[in-house]
């Protein structure tokens, strides 16, 4: 094997275009054969080509079509024999050289591949299709991507004018779109690939390869479009192996193992020796704890080419996607033992190691990949991020390595460390887990940095944090806009993943992992976690509930962001069901079973003593009971009224629909807008009583607070906002108002409590730091007061001198005279005439007052 092998498959669809354009006299016959090939009728294609080859002076195009059909059916030896016969007649034909090189390259036959490579390099491509074929060949050999684009692809694209309506596009214009998209996908630039394909001529959609590439481009960001694209590909060609493998890959992600094996079976019906199909079978066997089946499938995958680095890379990549990072990394190392320069394995190993906290080797591999391929988007992103992380501040202790932006660390690093330490102690004890290594936690102020560290690419909207086990990544409030989520709840949620992943050895389905973390949020703080919403109520009482035994599919097949959020809620409900009906010990026993390799549904039956069908039925009854218990008297019809209907109209509708939730929300909002305060209070109290957990738009709490504030009823305003705080940990405005009301009454404990609530939502604004410092000072909690005033100084306040003076006083009270002197001098530097600071300085320097000049 040559040291610089890049195992890149050349799509056979691109190789045939050369001849379609080169032999106009036979265009009709070749076109018919091409249609058979695109439709997946490979044996018919081979027979048609064989018939033509039996005639006098056949074109080399028929030889290529026969080889392509034989390769598609996995008849490698037959394809080699056909190639040998063809080259007796056309020893230097570029099309034959390219298809022959691909045949030898994908089966590890280095010597004949090298012979053909020499001949290919000696030829000068003349037609557009030849340029595309040679360009793809050069990419496979590691040629710079920009050079291939500039010299081979772009000239073809520029020369291929858009066809007139109703006119078939030039083959080169379709092929260059495919080739460019393949290049982009190879560099992990899915956006560019999608854009290229969407601009391709309409004729491209007749080819299953077009839809397959489109599915790859959308795979990470738009599952629905990717699924449709694969369906479109298979509608054209039910035997399209690339699309079948993509479909099986997607089914595997959804833990639909039976469906995965069935789809792989369809691919193997086409090519019984397809290495990737056998590799995916090895993954299924691994996830089902079938070590013998895994070994057999892996060995079968290597039958065609024992040194194929793609096999172990694919197995490892899929295991890592299932959070088996240790096992995945081991497979990547096996891949690299076969080809130390196989970049996909090196990049995947890099990401696995970074997720395992093995940063030194992980970052080194990122640099190696980027040096070898400067156009690899993931490698570029990682190297850039590594340099940015160098400016972060690190705090280590209590088995935790916390890494944050330096400015943010000044504001809330100790609080974050306290939350993480408490989570480590509380959850570790509860689940019987003693972590055997430090947990790395990284908090990013920029969403794109979080996404790159977590997924290798920008994007990842909707994620607040991700846990890989020993590594946690999280978005800071700075990355979340004007309404950030409670970061303490996020850290608690993610650290719970660390504990349960450790207990289960990273062998737990997503629904159970997420369900436990959401459940534990609410156990720690009832205002954390998720609440039942009217939409969730509709989904649970309707047909939106996923059976317990299929809950992982709720994440993988979610129709929208709302459905993803509902999957979290339902998973937590499922955990609550298991604990309520079968006790907490049953849940921990399931985690132990998973760690031992038992499948989740088998463990559930074992630990609950119930068959899956009964568990599904009992869970559905439990979930619907929970939903109905939240607002048992409410009705859920939506008012059929104009958007600008006044309170009289809404009330008239409500008279016919008493206890209607949506009607009460709408009437409460309208009465407040119309400033009918007394009527609004009555309606909003009824809404609160009907659905006390509702904190969405138009909720009773915020509207009642507005009513009481208008009436200057401070006690009632504070009481209703305190009720809101019990349900909503993100209610920053409510916390701030509660602190203001408490400060007016010198109720310092309440001021401090709400300042801490504010800090848990957004520590990147000055107000909560100043408020807490003032309250802590009054409560003689001097360390917290010191931290608050120091944080307040980070915002360059106009009264910095006063804050330094307060810091000096606090240090003096603690007997820290040197620190007090430094702070008082800073105060005087900003405000030389600050009398109180002069007096304190005299005291700190032991100058008698009577001798003061």
UniProtKB/TrEMBL annotation:
Alphabetical list of SMART domains matching this protein: TPR
Keywords on record: Signal
Leader sequence segment: 1-27
Gene3D superfamilies: Tetratricopeptide repeat domain
The name this protein goes by in its record: Tetratricopeptide repeat protein
Biological source species: Limnoglobus roseus
């Amino acid at each position: 094997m040559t040291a610089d092998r890049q195992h890149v498959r050349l799509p056979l669809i691109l190789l045939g275009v050369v001849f379609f354009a080169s032999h106009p006299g036979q265009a009709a016959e070749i076109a018919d054969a091409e249609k058979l090939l695109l439709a997946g009728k490979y044996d018919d294609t081979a027979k048609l080509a064989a018939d033509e080859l039996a005639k006098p002076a056949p074109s080399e195009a028929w030889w290529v079509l026969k080889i392509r059909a034989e390769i598609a059916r996995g008849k490698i030896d037959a394809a080699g024999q056909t190639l040998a016969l063809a080259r007796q007649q056309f020893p230097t034909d570029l099309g034959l050289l390219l298809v022959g090189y691909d045949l030898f390259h994908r089966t590890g036959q280095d010597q004949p591949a090298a012979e053909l490579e020499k001949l290919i390099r000696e030829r000068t491509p003349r037609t557009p299709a030849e340029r595309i074929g040679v360009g793809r060949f050069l990419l496979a050999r590691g040629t710079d991507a920009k050079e291939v684009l500039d010299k081979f692809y772009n000239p073809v694209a520029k020369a291929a004018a858009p066809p007139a309506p109703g006119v078939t596009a030039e083959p080169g214009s379709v092929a260059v779109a495919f080739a460019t998209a393949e290049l982009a996908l190879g560099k992990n630039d899915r956006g560019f690939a999608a854009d290229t394909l969407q601009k391709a001529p309409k004729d491209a959609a007749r080819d299953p390869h077009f839809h397959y590439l489109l599915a790859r481009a959308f795979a990470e960001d738009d599952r629905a479009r990717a699924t449709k694209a694969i369906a479109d590909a298979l509608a054209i060609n039910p035997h399209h192996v690339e699309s079948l493998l993509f479909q099986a890959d997607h089914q595997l992600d959804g833990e639909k193992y039976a469906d995965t094996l069935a789809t792989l079976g369809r691919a193997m019906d086409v090519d019984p020796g397809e290495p990737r199909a056998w590799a995916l079978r090895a993954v299924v066997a691994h996830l089902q704890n079938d070590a013998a089946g895994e070994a057999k499938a892996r060995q079968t995958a290597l039958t065609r080419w024992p040194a194929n680095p793609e096999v172990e890379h694919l197995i490892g990549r899929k295991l890592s996607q299932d959070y088996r990072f240790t096992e995945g990394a081991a497979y990547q190392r096996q891949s690299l033992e076969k080809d130390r320069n196989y970049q996909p394995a090196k990049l995947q190993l890099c990401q696995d190691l970074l997720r395992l906290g093995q940063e030194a080797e992980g970052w080194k591999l990122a640099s190696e990949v980027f040096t070898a391929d400067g156009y690899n988007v993931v490698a570029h992103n990682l190297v850039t991020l590594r340099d940015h992380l160098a400016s972060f501040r690190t705090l280590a202790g209590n088995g935790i390595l916390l890494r944050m932006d330096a400015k943010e660390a000044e504001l809330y690093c100790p609080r974050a460390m306290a939350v993480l330490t408490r989570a480590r102690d509380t959850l570790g004890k509860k689940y019987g887990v003693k972590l055997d290594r430090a947990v790395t936690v990284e908090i990013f102020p920029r969403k794109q940095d979080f996404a790159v560290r977590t997924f290798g690419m920008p994007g990842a909207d909707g994620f607040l944090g991700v846990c890989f086990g020993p590594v946690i990544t999280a978005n800071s409030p700075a990355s979340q806009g004007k309404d950030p989520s409670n970061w303490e709840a996020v850290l608690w949620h993610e650290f719970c993943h660390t504990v349960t992943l450790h207990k289960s050895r990273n062998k737990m389905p997503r629904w159970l992992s997420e369900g436990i973390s959401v459940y534990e949020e609410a156990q720690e703080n009832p205002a954390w976690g998720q609440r039942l919403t009217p939409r969730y109520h509709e989904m649970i009482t309707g047909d939106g509930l996923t059976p317990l035994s299929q809950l992982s599919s709720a994440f993988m097949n979610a129709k929208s962001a709302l459905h993803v959020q509902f999957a979290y809620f339902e998973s937590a409900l499922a955990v609550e069901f298991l604990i309520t009906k079968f006790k907490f010990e049953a849940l921990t026993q399931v985690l132990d079973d998973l760690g031992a390799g038992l499948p989740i549904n088998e463990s559930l039956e074992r630990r609950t003593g119930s068959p899956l069908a009964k568990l599904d039925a009992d869970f559905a009854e439990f979930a619907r009971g929970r939903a109905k218990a939240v607002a048992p008297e409410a009705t859920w019809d939506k008012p059929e009224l104009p958007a600008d209907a006044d309170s009289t109209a809404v009330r008239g509708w409500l008279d016919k629909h008493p206890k209607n939730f949506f009607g009460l929300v709408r009437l409460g909002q309208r009465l407040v807008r119309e400033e009918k305060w007394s009527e609004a209070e009555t309606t909003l109290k009824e809404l609160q009583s009907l659905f006390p957990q509702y904190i969405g738009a138009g909720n009773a709490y915020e509207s009642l607070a507005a009513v009481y504030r208008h009436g200057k009823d401070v006690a009632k305003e504070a009481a209703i906002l305190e009720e809101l705080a019990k349900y909503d940990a993100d209610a920053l405005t409510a916390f701030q108002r509660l602190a203001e009301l408490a400060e007016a009454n010198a109720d310092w404990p309440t001021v401090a409590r709400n300042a801490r609530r504010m800090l848990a939502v957004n520590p990147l604004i000055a107000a909560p730091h100043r408020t807490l410092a003032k309250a802590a000072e009054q409560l003689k909690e001097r360390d917290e007061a010191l931290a608050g005033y120091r944080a307040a100084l980070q915002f360059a306040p106009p009264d910095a001198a006063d804050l330094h003076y307060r810091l000096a006083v606090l240090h003096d009270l603690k007997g820290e005279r040197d620190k007090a002197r430094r702070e008082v001098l800073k105060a005087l530097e900003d405000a030389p005439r600050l009398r109180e600071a002069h007096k304190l300085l005299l005291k700190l320097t032991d100058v008698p007052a009577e001798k003061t000049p």
